[in-house]
Specification:
Layout lengths: L4 E4 L9 H12 L8 H8 L4 H8 L5 H18 L10 H11 L2 E6 L3 H10 L8 E4 L11 H10 L6 E5 L2 H9 L3 E5 L5 H7 L3 E3 L5 H7 L4
Parallel strand pairs: 1-2, 1-4, 2-3, 4-5, 5-6
Helix pairs in contact: 1-4, 3-4, 8-9
InterPro entries: Beta-PGM-like (IPR051600), HAD-like_sf (IPR036412), HAD-SF_hydro_IA (IPR006439), HAD_2 (IPR041492), HAD_sf (IPR023214), PGP-like_dom2 (IPR023198)
Family: Belongs to the HAD-like hydrolase superfamily. CbbY/CbbZ/Gph/YieH family.
Cofactor: Mg(2+)
Length: about 220
């Protein structure tokens, strides 16, 4: 069956933003003389919603207390984001393919809407997707499959005709649990961790041979 529906995570998938997020979290945590290392970031933060992240960082803290911290962290992240950030290699080629075949695409992210819109603008990708799904605006965010199921619904697609791209365990679990063929994006996590989360294949960027074999088979 032809692949006509394309669903993309944002942070770490369409752009490399992990270092900025990591630094912003540590700026906040420094007030408590705390620091998170890269392994903690990869295990507990990548791909998670702010409710999950701050609930883990500050167990027992009421939401009304950590929500302002989360908002401050996101503001710090946005202030560090350059006016132009290079998107992941191969995305222009893939978007041209989607347009050529009459396919549809969506960004599916746990990032706050303000972050998502700014990141898409900074990478030059604003307006290039048919829909933007924000996990925290739904009843359940990733790793629940609901954001991906919502993306399919908005695009009028089916899981059998779709592929997803994710760089985190949380995101891979969400997409694969929705029944979507999921490409794990190498960067933050290695191949073993991406496959353990449910990735069907692993690529470094959107020029990966396994991707093009899947969406544009020859012969």
């Amino acid at each position: 069956m032809a692949i006509t529906t394309f669903l993309f995570d944002l942070d770490g998938t369409l752009m490399d933003s992990d270092a900025l997020h990591h630094a912003a979290f540590n700026t906040i945590l420094a007030r408590w003389d705390r620091h998170i290392d890269v392994d903690y970031y990869k295990t507990h933060i990548m791909g998670a919603s702010n409710a999950m992240i701050f609930g883990h960082l500050f167990p027992g803290m009421p939401a009304e207390q950590y929500i302002p911290l989360a908002e401050e962290k996101e503001s710090l992240f946005r202030s560090q984001l350059d006016q132009h950030v290079a998107p992941t290699p191969g995305i222009e080629r893939l978007l041209e393919h989607i347009a050529r075949i009459g396919g549809r695409s969506a960004v599916v992210t746990n990032a706050p809407r303000a972050n998502a819109e700014l990141m898409l603008k900074a990478t030059g990708l604003a307006g290039r997707f048919d829909a933007l799904v924000i996990g925290d605006e739904l009843e359940r965010a990733k790793p629940d499959p609901l954001p991906y199921l919502t993306g399919l619904q908005l695009l009028g697609g089916t899981a059998a005709q779709a592929v997803a791209f994710e760089d985190s365990s949380s995101g891979v679990k969400a997409a694969s649990s929705a029944g979507i063929w999921t490409f794990g994006m190498l960067g933050g996590l290695d191949e073993a961790r991406l496959r353990a989360a449910g990735a069907h294949a692993v690529i470094r960027d959107f020029n990966g041979a396994d991707l093009w074999d899947k969406i544009a088979p020859q012969g």
